[in-house]
Amino acid sequence: MWPDASPIAAIGSALIDLAPPWAKDAAIALFGTDDKLALIIGIGIVLVVLAAITGLVELRWPPFGIAAMILFGGVGAVAAVTRADPAPLDWVPSVVAGAAAALALALLMARVPGRLKVAPIAVPERATEPEPDPAEQSTPLQRRTFLLWTVGTVAVGVLAAVGSSLARAGVHAVTAVRDALTLPAPAVAAPPVPATAELDVPGLAPVVTPNAQFYRIDTALLVPQVDPADWTLRIHGLVGTEVTITWDELLALPLQESYTTLACVSNEVGGDLIGNALWLGYPIRDLLARAAPTAEADMVLSHSIDGFTASSPLAALTDARNAILAIAMNGEPLPPEHGFPVRMVVPGLYGYVSATKWVTELEVTRFDAVSAYWTTRGWSERGPIKLQSRIDVPRKAQGLKSGETVIAGVAWQPTVGIAAVEVQVDEEPWQTATLATAISDDTWVQWMLPWTATTGNHVIRCRATSKTGEVQTETRTRTDPDGASGWPERFVEVF
Q: How do strand 359-365 and strand 232-237 relate by DSSP bridges?
């Protein structure tokens, strides 16, 4: 039974699927990589509010409050069974939760000496109306006590559900399998990172991003827990031969190391939804060659175990770039949140059309035949990474003093490479920055420029030039439908 079967996870995952692109961007802009935690907490708050309302309904119009609790459980069950590849019993946690909530409400109701009744439509004629028994009446204090008991009980349940969901997402039996895994030696090792690739400027992003600092953007509310022993990859569709490969078969292949910079299409100009890592995996083009795509195929739809799909141009997976099925990241097995046991890494494409985590299928098809997860939500079906740069230092609030300092950052256009970076302070002429040595054209590169900072407020801009001669555009665009563009700016105050 997957963690997504829990009521909060099932409903949260359904909300992620139903959310329009603007809502996704707003959540990322507001919460960053903590957007999923914020959603879980938000669902918990909503459940507490609904519990209070449901308690009042049951107190005033029984048994509609209890019926509402059962209905909530049914909604969770439907959300669980309509997820991708649901297990046969994924509906059980939501049904049990709804039944338990209904039972708890009934038991709480027993603490109230009497219930508010709806006034009858017609009152029979009587000479005198008997006085109500005080023991059968609920006072305002008793009703408030009942409400507090209801909200308190549900709040404890919500906190327990959130806590257990988060615990299952991070601690699972699969973790032990991952920790015990010994990675095979690469048949083709990546060249060493040049010593001149790091400019050693405080505050500048390291050229290789540590796993713990690597951004995470995906559609999985809870991290899927996939046992490598159960993992397979199926290549099918417009192919001459369908291919299926197991975990052990993948590890037995001649694996290759490569450094690749990944970027999210939701990365704003100057944003941090980007990272560079050393990946170990097997070339996707070699597996596709086994399957022999037919002449009419032009796209590969990759499927994740959580239901996510990505549309990668077939050419990007069969040309000379290091598009791989990755099993390791920076010398260790993939972290669960980054796709353990297997994910895709494709240089030059935004993650939403290439970097499928927990990948289980490669469906060879056509762009005019099927659409991927984000394409159906208004994003471009092809997502080449745009030429971009970023200013890392000086930081906005570092309290910069006048005198000699440096301006530094990173620039990238994977598969193309960076030829130059220029910097402008205020409206002065553009100056050429010093470039570090790039690991490869598939990675970002650090840059720096000495600056004599003078007292006052300043605006700093930068722009990159690619190895093909393209100059980063000044025109600002939104992240949707195919990535942001524009010159990054940083406003600093010098004392």
A: parallel
Phi, psi angle pair for 133, to nearest 5°: -70, 120
pLDDT in tens, 27-59: 666 766 666 667 667 767 777 777 778 878 877
Token reading at 117: 């009744």
Q: Which amino acid is at 142?
A: Q
Rounded to the nearest 5°, which phi and psi values hold at 479?
-70, -35
The model's pTM is 0.75
Q: What is the pLDDT of residue 151?
A: 57
3-state SS, residue 351? helix
For residue 80, which amino acid is it?
A
In this model, does residue 119 exceed pLDDT 50?
no
Cα angle at 415 between 413 and 420, to 5 degrees? 45
Taking the C-alpha atoms of residue 199 and residue 341, their distance in angstroms, rounded to an integer, is: 34
What 8-state DSSP symbol labels residue 121?
S
> What is the DSSP track for 229-256?
GG-EEEEEESBSS-EEEEHHHHHHS--E
- 481, burial (CB in 10 Å: exposed 0-12, middle 13-18, buried 19+): middle
Reading phi first (left if > 0) and then psi (alpha if -120 to 50, else beta), residue 426 is in: left
Across 464-488, average pLDDT: 97
For the purposes of burial, counting CB atoms within 10 Å of the CB of 246, is it exposed (0-12), middle (13-18) or buried (19 or more)?
A: middle
Count of all residues that appear for the chain in the document: 495
